[in-house]
Design a protein that fits this description.
- Belongs to the PEP-utilizing enzyme family.
- The chain folds into 4 domains: 5-244, ATP-grasp fold, A domain (Dna Ligase, domain 1); 255-356, 2-Layer Sandwich (D-amino Acid Aminotransferase, Chain A, domain 1); 394-527, 3-Layer(bba) Sandwich (Glucose Oxidase, domain 1); 546-636 and 671-885, TIM Barrel.
- It has 33 helices and 34 strands.
- Helix 5 (130-147) packs parallel to helix 7.
- The longest helix is centred in the C-terminal third of the chain and has 26 residues, at 598-623.
- The protein is elongated and about 105 Å long.
- The structure holds adenosine-5'-diphosphate (ADP) and magnesium ion (2 copies).
- One magnesium ion is lined by residues 338, 350.
């Protein structure tokens, strides 16, 4: 018989941390903490299998669930000597969701469940605090009615405001027990009016209603959106945790808070956290009051006037700090914890692996490895390669002029500029429909804002602390965020921001520096990132582990220099056509394309030769002896054709012909399906003089640089779009002939290789043949994906969305390599190619070269290197190391 319910509390538990799949993250860690002897209010977890069962069986529960829940509940009652539904000594519980992967704020927790008109009196007596009892009851009615019964919050807020107004006070805390009793009566009337039936007084009905609501919330829009954004399968389900309540709102010796074992923003090994005295549950996260710091250091760093816990609750602080060390040593990772203090007694309510900025992740991983808490390999495995992207983006140029608008907390690092919008919906509209870059400005954010937060360049809030919703979510997304900028006034109605006489309107540009908390008017210049500090250290470790080489796709000197700076070990793809778009060159290029005779083409090519040679000289110099793979001209010629009358006239003049001649040639070159047309080596086959010129430019440059610097220069000349060995034979012969000629003229020779792109299925299948001539292969997976799927990358967006929604293809095959189809062709080509030519050098170029999951595949397929855009080189280096260490890729693909 399946066990559906697992108890925890009182120094023992039926679950464990490694049972996350079954108990959810929250439940598994509550169990683990109990087992560690850490004070956790007793409770039980209803497993994720019940959620799965619930949805598989028309939203019903397994037969034995009820008995198991009742037994676990009795156990809790026994542990703490209170009774659920008792009028004298009522046990109150929280009902909390908890999925396998943490989904912060995605699902709704209900607190104080078990209160009704009778038990509230019991609570009042037992606590000797009627105000507290009625405050708990009115919170419960509001939460329960909202989450379970679907009554909107504003109904309750209006009532609360009315009562305060009648009394002539402005703070909730100004209301006494009698006032709150009135609030409760009005709340219940409101619920009855809205639903046509009274607020449930039966505590068991309350409990099952709440359990059902947690399971129901698994399929709410917020949760679905979050799962979509984070690739969490719907099948995982959520667990439900039912836990006895502890109260942080019973007076000034009570509090509630959130803390991290290390600083989640910088990674510094310092205790970091915030708390509120006399508060409950979500009050800290919701940013309703300004929280106090745990430590004196934190208080000083934030120049806060409020006392730190270290000062005002020193005993509790000591205990909390000891738990911090215990949990971190146990989990061997930075923890994010929730706690409540009831009458000076500390209770832990949650621990989980803390979210952190990438900068903090690197520091924590490197520090923990140095502290001996984890190994270097663990440190390498800890970092999500894709997250490095955050550090590879620009930061504010310290020298750039700027005009400060205001300051808040440095909630999520990085610099971002954009146009101000005031709601999540507007953010999505402006970004998706108007193609604008926006900064989302809110007083505070809530889970409904997720979509808008995701598309924004940066997020600015005027309320809330470092653990407010905006801060936590922004850090997770790697979006720069300034939170709690209290001096900034946001007026939603007028759509303005005001600070000390300065006004910023919707659509105006502002810049955020999430690393300092500063907000600037207008756009501020940025500077490029560097691989230094912990990032540099981790990258050194990575290089001792990985076996795949990492090259970059680069053709300009700037790209090549960036690639080297980020540790590229060569150029894997230099696209020569990109060198012809320069205004000075495009005319000669057009002249060449439009020439009707070989003589005409040669005349134009002669003009291009010096440019091309100079390009290669620069590349070879920058790459200092590292391999450079140069792809000869590849794209359909029409990409270079003149469009406007003026362009046509210019080309005509340069070529000494009438514009009409150019136009006619233009028309003649039109293709219906240019991607499958006259391109790639087909150009070299029909016009060998083009490849001859390019080969000459390469050899002259290689000889020049090798002679000048004394370094070996090894050009790897790559022929695109080969489908038959004969194509490669012809092109190689033409290149060899040019090499011989240049080496004889220069009386100097260099080594070189001639290889091919594998980007047609035919080439992959005939790789054994092609390898007889080709000295290396580079998998051009952009085209190989297009040609394998028979699907154009540029046209597939709209229907691929539908395909993914219908689960036909799980991932965009242009972003992450299709391992089943395209991958199979790569495996075949690798095997057949190497059967012909032992040790044949194999690489991959194209978008996939920078995708961690694809890199894992490349490791498995025995490739020698991956090549990606210069900014992704560190990502690829890390992913390659992780692939060498085995295990699954963090951005995994099917
Ligand atoms: P989330 O997943 O959104 O963090 P939680 O289930 O952790 O939701 O609960 C929300 C808030 O309620 C947290 O601040 C938590 O500390 C508080 N809370 C949950 N259960 C209890 C409890 N048994 N006693 C006191 N506070 C609780
Ligand atoms: Mg929580
Ligand atoms: Mg291609």
């Amino acid at each position: 018989m399946t066990k559906w319910v697992y108890s925890f509390g009182g120094g023992k538990a039926e679950g464990r941390a490694d049972m996350k799949n079954l108990l959810g993250g929250k439940g598994a860690n509550l169990a683990e903490m109990s087992n560690l002897g850490i004070p956790v209010p007793p409770g039980f977890t209803i497993s994720t299998e019940v959620c799965t069962y619930y949805y598989a069986n028309g939203e019903t529960y397994p037969q034995t669930l009820k008995d198991e829940v009742m037994a676990a509940l009795s156990q809790v009652e026994e542990d703490i000597g209170l009774k659920f539904g008792s009028t004298a000594d009522p046990l109150l519980v929280s009902v909390r969701s908890g999925a396998r992967a943490s989904m912060p704020g995605m699902m709704d927790t209900i607190l104080n469940l078990g209160l009704n008109d009778k038990s509230v009196e019991g609570l009042a007596k037992r606590s000797n605090d009627a105000r507290f009892a009625y405050d708990s009851y009115r919170r419960f009615i509001q939460m329960y009615s909202n989450v379970v019964l679907g009554v909107d919050h504003h109904n309750f807020e209006e009532i609360l405001d009315e009562v305060k107004e009648d009394k002539g006070v402005s703070l909730d805390t100004d209301l006494d027990a009698a006032d709150l009793k009135k609030v409760v009566a009005k709340y219940k009337d409101k619920v009855a009016e809205q639903l046509g039936k009274p607020f449930p007084q039966d505590v068991h009905e309350q409990l099952w209603g709440a359990v059902g609501a947690v399971f129901g919330s698994w399929m709410n829009q917020r949760a679905i959106t979050y799962r979509r954004l984070h690739d969490i399968p719907a099948e995982w389900g959520t667990a439900v945790n039912v836990q006895s309540m502890v109260f942080g709102n019973m007076g000034s010796d009570c509090s509630t808070g959130v803390c991290f074992t290390r600083n989640p923003s910088t990674g510094e090994n310092e205790f970091y956290g915030e708390f509120l005295v006399n508060a409950q549950g979500e009050d800290v996260v919701a940013g309703i009051r300004t929280p106090q710091q745990l430590t004196l250091a934190g208080k000083n760093a934030q120049s806060s006037d409020l006392p730190a816990m270290e000062e005002c609750m020193p005993e509790v602080f000591k205990e909390l700090n000891a738990i911090r060390h215990k949990l971190e040593a146990h989990y061997k990772d930075m923890q994010d914890m929730e706690f409540t203090v009831q009458q000076n007694r500390l209770w832990m309510l949650q621990t989980r692996t803390g979210k952190r900025t990438t900068k903090a992740a690197l520091k924590i991983a490197v520090d923990m490895a140095r502290e001996g808490l984890i190994t270097r390999k663990d440190a390498i495995k800890r970092i999500d390669p894709a997250s490095l992207d955050q550090l590879l983006h620009p930061t504010l140029d310290p020298k750039a002029p700027r005009k400060i608008l205001g300051r808040g907390l440095p909630a999520s690092p990085g610099a971002a500029s954009g146009k101000v919008v005031f709601s999540a919906e507007e953010a999505e509209d402006w970004v998706n429909n108007r193609k604008e870059k926006v900064i989302l400005v809110r007083i505070e954010t809530s889970p409904e804002d997720i979509g808008g937060m995701h598309v924004s360049e940066g997020i600015l809030t005027t309320r809330g602390g470092m653990t407010s919703h905006a801060a936590v979510v922004a850090r997770g997304m790697g979006t720069p965020c300034v939170a709690g900028a209290g001096e900034i006034r946001v007026d939603y109605a007028a759509k303005t921001i005001k600070v000390a006489g300065q006004v910023v309107k919707e659509g105006d540009i502002i810049t955020l520096d999430g690393s300092t908390g500063e907000v600037f008017i207008g756009a501020v210049a940025t500077i490029q990132p560097e691989l230094t500090g912990d990032f540099g250290t981790l990258m050194e470790w990575v290089d001792t582990i990985r076996t795949l080489k990492v090259r970059a796709n680069a053709e300009t000197p700037l790209d090549a220099a960036t690639a080297r700076k980020f540790g590229a070990e060569g150029i894997g793809l230099c696209r020569t056509e990109h060198m012809f778009f320069d205004p000075k060159r495009i005319i000669a290029m057009r002249e060449m394309i439009l020439a009707e005779t070989e003589k005409g083409r040669r005349a134009a090519l002669a003009k291009l030769l010096p440019f091309q040679r100079q390009d290669f000289i620069e590349l070879f110099e920058i790459m200092q002896g590292l391999p450079v793979t140069i792809r000869l001209l590849d794209p359909p010629l029409h990409e270079f054709l003149p469009n406007s009358e003026a362009e046509i006239a210019e080309v005509a003049k340069e070529a000494g012909v009438e514009p009409a001649v150019v136009k006619a040639r233009n028309t003649a070159l039109h293709e219906n399906n240019p991607m499958l047309g006259h391109r790639g080596c087909r150009l070299g086959i029909t016009y060998p003089e083009i490849y001859e010129m390019q080969a000459r430019a390469i050899f002259e440059a290689a000889v020049h640089v090798s002679r000048e610097t004394g370094r070996t220069v090894v050009p790897e000349i790559m022929i695109p779009l080969v489908g038959a060995k004969k194509e490669l034979d012809l092109m190689k012969a033409c290149i060899d002939k040019e090499a011989e000629a240049v080496f004889a003229e220069q009386k100097y020779s260099v080594k070189y290789m001639v290889g091919t792109m594998i980007e047609l299925p035919r080439a992959a299948l005939l790789a054994g043949e092609i390898a007889k001539t080709g000295e290396f292969f580079s998998f051009g997976t952009n085209d190989l994906t297009q040609t394998t799927f028979g699907m154009s990358r540029d046209d597939s967006g709209p229907f691929l969305e539908v395909y993914r929604a219908k689960g036909i293809y799980e991932h965009d095959p242009f972003a992450s390599l299709d391992q089943a189809g395209v991958g199979e062709l790569i495996r075949i080509a690798a095997e057949r190619g190497r059967a012909t030519r032992a040790g044949l050098k194999l690489g991959i170029c194209g978008e996939h070269g920078g995708d961690p999951a694809s890199i894992h595949f490349c490791q498995g397929a025995g490739l020698d290197y991956v090549s990606c855009s210069p900014y992704r080189v560190p990502i690829a280096r890390l992913a390659a190391a992780q692939a060498a260490l085995g295990g699954s890729s963090s951005s995994g693909t099917a």
